[in-house]
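Dear colleague,

Following up on Tuesday's group meeting, I ran the structure prediction for the two-component complex that the binding team flagged. I've pasted the input sequences exactly as they went in, so you can double-check that nothing got truncated or mislabelled along the way. The structure tokens for the whole assembly follow below. Feel free to forward this to whoever is handling the docking comparison.

Inputs:
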Amino acid sequence: MASPYAQDAGVRTGMRRGGVLMLLPDARIHERAPTLEADARQAVALALLQYTPQVAEGEESTLLMDVGASLRLFGGIRALCRRVRANVRALGFTASLACAPTARGAWLLARANAGRAVRMEALLRRLDRLAVLLMPPARPYAAWFDGIGCHTLGDLRRLPRPGLQRRCGRELLDLLDAAYGLVPELYEWIAPPETFRARLELYDRIDDADLLLAGAQCLLLQLTGWLCARQLAVERITLQLEHERGRVARPPTSVEVVLAEPTWRDEHLVRLLKERLGRLTLEAPVIGLALEALQVRPMAPPNASLFPEPGGSEEDRMRMLELLAARLGPENVLQPLPLADYRPEQANVWVPVQQKVSARARDAQLPPDVLSLPRPTWLLARPIALLMRDHRPFYGSPLRMASNPERIEAGWWDGPETRDYFIAEGLDHTLYWVYRERIGMGEDGPKWFLHGLFG
Amino acid sequence: MFIQYFFASYMNCSGSISAAPEALHPSLWLASQLARSDTRCIDTGHPTLSAQLPGGGWPTGTLVDLLLQQPGIGEMRLLRPALAAVAQRRIVLLQPPHPPQALAMAALGVPPSQLIWLRATRTADALWAAEQVLRSGSCGALLFWQNNIRADNLRRLHLAAQAGETLFFMMRPLAAGQDASPAPLRLSLRPQAGGIEIGFVKRRGPQRDATLFLPLNSYLPNRHAPVDRTAPAPVAAGGVHTELVH
């Protein structure tokens, strides 16, 4: 095989190494690796399982898909071809795609790179013009076919069948009949594995998050195919970034993504991985990626309502929060979990959104009459000691106590507080929540602190 | 804005026009009128304020600039009725100046289960988070505190807000009122005894220089009423039923 650039320079299939190097001195020549080719075919087949459960491997690096039942779902043959082509390109391969009413016909069209033939008559016309030598059983008799002037499949069909069978064997006729739809075809469909683990070897040492994401996308595409084929949705995946084995062996860096709502589509996973990889600092360049589906559950059909909710479904909400947590960090996306405690700091507890909090547990902690408690909207992270001027606390302006004291005296078991809370008013009528320490009074009068702002 | 001035001058020149501009198209109005809002509005809960806003409430799906003298001057009490109205969906507090207190928010009518507090270490992260929240459209309101923000970022957020129906308030210091902003509604807020003073920096309607005083329900208890005094006992006529006395 030669790349288009090499073909322009005159390199042809079957040339010797020395001849190629004479035409293109800086050509890179690789040996064929059958195991790698098989792996690649397997990866593409796994990714294409998302379009149909019936994918089979054909001869000479081809994949056959029965898409008859999937056409409507994916919006017709053109849209489906476009998606398949995009998927194969995303996986990093080039393919020639052909469609035909018979699998063998499609195989022949794809080998000749002759495009689509959707109706049977069109297929017959196209097939008649194809070269005889495309069929593997005809190749040993190439000289004979050339000698009798039989160049196309149309010529071949006009030859007498008994004589052809005696000379060239049964397979040639079987293949011809299968292509023209005269006999039924049987294939062994590829069965998806029980568990999913895909590996990708990168072509270079990589430490760029965008490039890693492109690699991870290949693996996610295979995951999507596997999930669709097995009718599963994924809850937890891990992406392992394998490092080069240098002087010290380095364990692979693991990126684990846990989903609140199981999914079988890759867009959300790609977005989550993008944010996670962007935050990651790599200790060493990455040479390989491995993706594993750790936790799966049966796919639940979408619960569609007749009138869509204006704010989107609960799943959309969870997806948004997951995405926020992936970039900002789970400790920065918080929900309140108030605690029944007299001390304001201890009562105001916020926990990560991912933590499951039942509504009953939350309501049980709320005081029965929320409205009677004068609590400030903003509670300072740590109280500010106030200056004293003329025996009055001072914050921007002298503060005037505008309410009766609320005495809070609790927490002898951990961090006792003995405070008198007041609502104080500044000269500009801003309200502050201040307190006076009752124990530990300094020599210059009681100590005052600012603890909250009334929003 | 151009159309607004154009029509005003046109009216003056020709003196008579067959149809009033507001009857021609919903997005036309005279400079002396308040615009009709093209988005859904949520009632502010304060009739005097609603009367001064185009559309009669806080517009959803647009950027609303609130310029605060400092945090904690009654801005949450001002927004309380609107927040309570959209509280069936999540309310996101992005980078508030101090830790919010769930009990106080519950007293304002926002149940704690609907609150999300987002913290961001970098400005870029905060802007990204705001955009994600606005684009997802699954939250009722977004309150975003940010002191310094570039005009192109504001425009980007304004565009993102238009994608959904989220109530979006930007809380910025008073000094930011000097800078241009794509927000169609900008109000300045200052504390005042027993309420809040609202200045109209920008609105789709006539220029209003006078500020609006809005009384807010105060946290201050009435200090004089609840004195522990025994109520005078109802006079009973010596154990005899009243009907029997006559």
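The two ends of chain A are 72 Å apart (CA to CA).

Cheers,
M.
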